[in-house]
Design a protein that fits this description.
This protein is α+β, with helices and mostly antiparallel strands and 356 residues long. The chain has a single domain, classed as Beta-lactamase. The protein has 11 helices and 13 strands. α2 runs parallel beside α6. The chain is globular, with a radius of gyration of 20 Å. The relative contact order is 0.17.
Length: 356
């Protein structure tokens, strides 16, 4: 399908049996939260100038802020969306993660070398391709930090690289025969009962520097929470299997140490994984947590240990709207965890030690 062209837009049906994001629990203590602690989190979110926020524990809304139905720009959260589609395609046998760029016939405006063409789909998913070329939707900081071409062999070094992510979009369409936005609608948005997802809120961005376009999503806060809850529930939704449990586990466990610490301390398959600067998992309730991250303060963090999904959005359409950086977001997560009741924290620790 030609980039930027879609068939008729379909409106995913609202699942009346799904969670009501407009209804906040009147008493969050049975879910392990201090009402005073949640009030402090709510105040902090407002002081940061966030456009929207939502926190769900055990399928109950414990905190909400702003317009949950507005489709904000998703930025790099798009990469976690594509990771989920790859999980479905790999499990269906449409894509083999060991295929390399040579096998796939992938090239670039600046022709790829024989070495670069050895990069596999797994290398691309984990940001270890060793291909360091200009890419669509690449921010200035990424251009400046890009290693020299051929500095590392495929698979040898982690580097967060838009080229890898964009090429995965090209490969997905080539090997499945599906437009990735339409595939996301039929395979994920509709089954999850997403209320606000529209094909009209998606587009490809092709730039002169590369043959491979980036793929842009807009998504509402409540629909993004649904996506996080899918992963919280290990790929199942209301009794239906959407993603395999194996793919959820594989894509959200650490594959590389980033050295950044916090919610971006390690990297999975197009997901950030919480770790310290040495790649060690935190001992707090952030153990096993993973995050989809977009520039400016768009975050989706899944915390399986406490059965919780947390979403934060900013209005990056407005140049004057506040931005929320990674260190500020990590401090906000610390504040969130401080709102846990002590008795609940002890219970969660016991559950974690039992390996559930």
């Amino acid at each position: 399908m030609v980039p930027g062209c879609h068939g008729p837009a379909k409106q995913p049906p609202h699942d009346s049996a799904a969670i009501d994001f407009d209804k906040v629990v009147s008493n969050a203590e049975p879910l392990g939260w201090s009402d005073d602690g949640l009030a402090a989190v709510q105040a902090k979110i407002a002081s940061l100038g966030a456009a929207a926020a939502l926190m769900v524990t055990s399928d109950e809304v414990v905190l909400r802020h702003g317009d949950l139905a507005k489709n904000y720009r998703a930025h790099s959260i798009r990469k976690s969306f594509l990771s989920a589609l790859y999980g479905i395609a790999i499990d269906a046998g449409q894509i083999d993660p060991t295929w390399n760029l040579r096998d796939l016939g992938i090239d670039e405006r600046t022709p790829l070398s024989r070495s670069e063409k050895q990069a596999t789909i797994t290398d691309l998913l984990s940001c270890r391709s060793g291909v360091y070329l200009p890419a669509a939707s690449e921010v200035a900081s990424a251009r400046k930090s890009r290693p020299e071409r051929h500095q590392f062999e495929p698979g040898a070094q982690w580097h967060y690289n838009n080229w890898d992510h964009n090429v995965l979009g090209t490969i997905y369409g080539q090997e499945t025969g599906q437009d990735l936005f339409e595939a996301f609608e039929t395979q994920i948005a509709v089954p999850l009962g997403m209320q606000d997802y529209r094909l009209s809120n998606t587009r490809y961005q092709l730039e002169e520097v590369s043959l491979h376009p980036s793929y842009k999503f807009r998504m509402s806060t409540r629909d993004l929470a649904r996506f996080g809850m899918l992963f919280l529930h290990k790929g199942a939704w209301q009794g239906h299997r959407i993603l395999s449990e194996e793919w959820v586990s594989r894509s959200t466990r650490p594959h590389s140490i980033t050295g950044r610490g916090g919610s971006k301390g390690a990297y999975g398959l197009m997901w950030w994984v919480s770790a310290d600067e040495n790649g060690n998992p935190p001992t707090s309730d952030l153990a096993s947590a993973f995050t989809a991250s977009g520039t400016g303060g768009h975050r989706l963090t899944v915390m399986p240990r406490i059965d919780t999904v947390f979403v934060l959005r900013t209005d990056t359409d407005d140049r004057n709207s506040p931005r929320i950086g990674s260190s500020t977001y990590d401090r906000l997560l610390d504040l969130v965890l401080s709102a846990r009741l002590a008795s609940s924290a002890n219970r969660d620790l016991a559950v974690g030690e039992d390996g559930e």
